[in-house]
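Dear H.,

Thanks for agreeing to be a second pair of eyes. The structure we're designing against is below in token form, covering all 578 positions.
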């Protein structure tokens, strides 16, 4: 031994002792060896060593049954292969690899390669396979404890990882469900966008989007058709360029945009179409907002109203023509009324003479014999009929012109009906008809024109007798809470429902009934005007072959005091001119 060998040997021993202590501290601090006391760890140190392996260096050779070392990874990472096929990578401190069949002597089937600089603690477990070694059973005990701790640690770690994995999986599922819901909403929104897009593109109204300066940024096909331009000549241009400027325009387009920002705007304008004359359109402008209700653009809907304007002009022209025709008809109607009044007066004078002469001849018996009576009687009857017809024409004309004189006094409505009934009873009995009247216990008193109401009742009773061949004619008075009703009911031929209104029209005769009578059809229109002048109504209820019921009402607001009051002598005259 040389003089230099001693220090070198001492230095080596010191290094080994230092490494030995490092391994010892590593084992003591590791959770895998917490079941060992210090003595047992010191026993293990005799079989332990601290080793380093370079990147790519093979730590365990596949199929080497002689290597019984167990490796504990302290630093770096290693890859495990089976038949040169990559299985997994170990990189956590104190990951274990190497001899995993200590109790069974089965050869290993994996190889381990360093991925980088690797630091490991290797414990040689070959003593387990040497039964003659007295340390065999103690060593096995150490390793059983160690592997028990390893399994406990692994189970605990696995449990925590499983919990972490479960939590992660639940979060993933929640995210997946949220993602699916979000995807469904996106699909729904996309479908709505497609539908809206189709609706906008297929509508006949022009729609465009513009910024707040009035520059067009989007437009549907209908808008391009209205303007007869392609998209390149529309997008990016001020919308005002397509509007005709005129003094009739209510507002400049800049003012319209300002109003639109506040509350929207709608109105009419003239649109300039390429290569054609301007045409009228209806504009509707509104603000477009985003989901945060921020104003982002202006939308404009344009509708062609050329046909509407043409119809309006046509209607105005027709209205003007109808107004002129109405004025002409009014003049003609006035001339007709004047003519009827004049002719009625002119006819009444000779007719009065004819009546007077006929009545004189009859009363003085100046004409004798059946032949004389046969000539004079028809003259008298026809003259009376003509006088009645002329009276109707004059009265109708006065009522329509507001020149009819009414003498409104307190009268008994029952007396009116009885007077008419006495006048027509004989005529009804000559036709074989039953003629009856029904009156309430207390006869109603009203302020009305006696002669005018007599005229109305006469017209109703005369028509009932005229158009009834068999059965009866009934006149009755029915007091109600707000009005009193007079009904004339017959069992005659009846009137179809479609002809009810015709009954009250001037100069209009019901075709199915025309052959039954002569006249101008003035009796019922005259009766209606007389009843309405007394604040009443008149109408008919009838069916063919089931008879008719004509009735009129008088408002009880015209009711007077019952007979026999002390003020009867001071009765006030309510005569007035309508």
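And this is the sequence the design step returned. I haven't edited it by hand at all.
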């Amino acid at each position: 031994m040389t003089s230099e060998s001693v220090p070198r040997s001492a230095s080596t021993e010191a290094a080994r002792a230092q490494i030995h202590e490092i391994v010892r501290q590593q084992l003591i601090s590791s959770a895998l060896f917490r079941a060992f006391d210090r003595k047992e760890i010191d026993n293990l140190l005799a079989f332990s060593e601290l080793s380093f392996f370079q990147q790519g260096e093979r730590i365990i050779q596949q199929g080497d049954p002689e290597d019984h070392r167990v490796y504990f990874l302290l630093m770096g990472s290693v890859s495990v292969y089976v038949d040169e096929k990559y299985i997994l990578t170990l990189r956590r401190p104190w990951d274990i690899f190497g001899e995993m069949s200590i109790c069974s002597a089965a050869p290993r089937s994996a190889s381990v390669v360093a991925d980088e600089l690797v630091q490991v603690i290797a414990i040689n477990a070959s003593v387990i396979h040497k039964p003659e070694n007295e340390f065999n059973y103690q060593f096995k005990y150490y390793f059983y404890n160690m592997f028990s701790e390893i399994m406990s640690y692994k189970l605990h770690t696995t449990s925590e990882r499983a919990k972490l994995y479960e939590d992660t999986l639940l979060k993933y599922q929640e995210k997946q469900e949220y993602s699916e819901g979000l995807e469904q909403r996106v699909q729904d929104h996309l479908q709505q966008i497609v539908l809206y897009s189709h609706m906008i593109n297929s509508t006949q109204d022009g729609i465009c989007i513009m910024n707040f300066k009035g520059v067009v940024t989007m437009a549907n096909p209908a808008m391009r058709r209205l303007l007869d331009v392609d998209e390149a000549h529309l997008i990016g241009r001020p919308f005002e360029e397509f509007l005709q400027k005129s003094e009739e325009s209510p507002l400049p387009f800049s003012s319209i945009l300002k109003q639109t920002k506040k509350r929207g705007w709608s109105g009419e304008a003239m649109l300039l179409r390429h290569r054609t004359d301007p045409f009228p359109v209806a504009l509707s402008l509104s603000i477009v907002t985003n989901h945060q209700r921020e104003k982002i653009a202006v939308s404009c809907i344009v509708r062609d109203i050329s046909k509407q304007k043409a119809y309006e002009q046509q209607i105005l022209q027709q209205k003007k023509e109808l107004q002129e025709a109405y004025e002409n008809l009014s003049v003609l109607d006035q001339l007709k009324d004047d003519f009827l009044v004049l002719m009625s007066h002119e006819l009444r004078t000779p007719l009065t003479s004819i009546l007077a002469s006929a009545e004189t001849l009859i009363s003085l018996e100046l004409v004798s014999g059946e032949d004389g009576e046969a000539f004079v009687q028809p003259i008298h009857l026809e003259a009376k009929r003509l006088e009645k017809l002329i009276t109707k024409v004059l009265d109708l004309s006065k009522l329509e012109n507001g020149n009819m004189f009414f003498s409104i006094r307190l009268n008994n409505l029952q007396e009116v009906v009885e007077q008419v009934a006495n006048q027509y009873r004989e005529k009804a009995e000559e036709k074989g008809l039953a003629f009856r009247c029904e009156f309430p216990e207390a006869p109603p008193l009203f302020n009305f024109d006696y002669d005018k109401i007599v005229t109305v009742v006469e017209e109703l009773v005369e028509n009932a007798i005229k158009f009834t061949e068999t059965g009866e004619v009934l006149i009755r008075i029915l007091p109600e809470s707000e009005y009193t009703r007079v009904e004339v009911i017959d069992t005659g031929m009846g009137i179809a429902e479609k002809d009810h209104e015709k009954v009250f029209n001037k100069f209009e005769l019901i075709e199915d009934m025309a052959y039954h009578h002569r006249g101008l059809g003035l009796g019922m229109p005259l009766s209606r005007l007389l009843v309405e002048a007394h604040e009443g109504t008149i109408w008919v209820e009838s069916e063919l072959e089931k008879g008719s019921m004509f009735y009129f009402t008088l408002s009880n607001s015209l009711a007077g005091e019952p007979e026999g009051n002390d003020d009867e002598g001071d009765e006030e005259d309510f005569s007035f001119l309508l």
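Two observations from my side: Residues 140 and 215 are 90 Å apart (CA to CA). Residues 1-6, 513-517, 560-578 have pLDDT under 50 and may be disordered.

Warmly,
E.
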